[in-house]
Amino acid sequence: MKDRLNEKQSQFIGEETAFRSAVLIPLVQVNGEWHILFEVRAFTMRKQPGDISFPGGKIDLTDPTPLAAALRETHEELGVNPETVTVIEELSPYIASPTFVIYPFVAVIDYNEIIPNYNKEEVEEVFTIPLKWLLNYEPYMHLVSVQPTPASDFPFEKIVNGADYEWGTRAIEEWFYDFEDYTIWGITARILKHFIECVE
Predict the structure, then answer these.
(1) CB-facing half-sphere around the CA of 196: CA atoms within 13 A
(2) Taking residues 1-19, what's their average pLDDT?
(3) Looking at 54-118, which runs of residues are DSSP E strands?
(4) Which pLDDT tens digit goes with each residue over 49-102?
(5) How far apart are CA 153 and CA 93, in angstroms?
(6) Of 156, 27, 168, 140, nearest to 89 (Cα)?
(7) I need a surface site. Which of 14, 46, 177, 183 has the fewest CB within 10 A?
(8) Element (H, E) at 173
(9) If 0-12 CB within 10 Å is exposed, 13-18 middle and 19+ buried, where does residue 21 land?
(10) Does residue 16 surpass a pLDDT of 90?
(11) In this model, does residue 9 exceed pLDDT 80?
């Protein structure tokens, strides 16, 4: 038992069956200053059209690692050759729920390689925010209450208090960054906030 438990385990229970995705936090040089690059998702996208995000997406079965997925997606979305990307560090995974996890990576990419090549079917536009501005900005937060709702076939007869069981409501912190006409929020803001705190 001890030998088996000493073997490499997943980072959290349920990782093997979770929906897994990976993103790149792209550092770019703009006029000699470090910026972070963001995408605005195309308005024709089925999921989250118009939202601001980092390049990245679902980890496919053919991706050997989360980093490989992040580099592949960055190439598909922004036209950046993975061989020209300088990966700096992997951040802690963001576990949105036991069934959804995101692996973020910080990397330096060539801004000039992006501009003419990004995929207009997936990306509406790209923009950058100076890292110095982000380090001095105070994001603001709003709470969102989440109430579990069991499905109609939930076996209430097997738990104490049955249908009268008191499910705990929890609050999710939603952070917001306002830069010019852009508002970054949701998972992108949460990962960005973690990155900025690490840099600080």
Answers:
(1) 21
(2) 80
(3) 56-58, 86-90, 94-97, 100-108
(4) 889 999 999 999 999 999 999 999 999 999 999 999 999 999 999 988 778 999
(5) 33
(6) 27
(7) 46
(8) strand 170-179
(9) buried
(10) no
(11) no
Q: What is the pLDDT of residues 158-167, one digit of tens each?
A: 999 998 998 8
User: Among residues 64, 66, 70, 101, which one has the least CA distance to residue 85?
Assistant: 70
Q: What DSSP line would sit under 45-67, residue for residue?
A: -SSSTT-EE-SEEEPPTT-SSHH
Q: Which of 76, 136, 131 is nearest to 106 (CA)?
A: 131
Question: How does residue 4 score in pLDDT terms, banded at 50, 70 and 90?
Answer: confident
Three-class SS of 123-151: EEEEEEEEHHHHHHCCCEEEEEEECCCCC
pTM for the model: 0.88
pLDDT for residue 22: 97
Instruction: Match 């992040």 to its residue by tokens.
Output: 70
Query: Over the stretch 120-151, which tens digit does the pLDDT of each residue have?
Result: 999 999 999 999 999 999 999 999 998 888 99
Distance CA 92, CA 106 (A): 11
Q: How far is the C-alpha of 70 from the C-alpha of 60, rounded, in Å?
A: 10
Cα gap 73→24, rounded to integer Å: 9
CB 54 within 8 A of CB 189: no
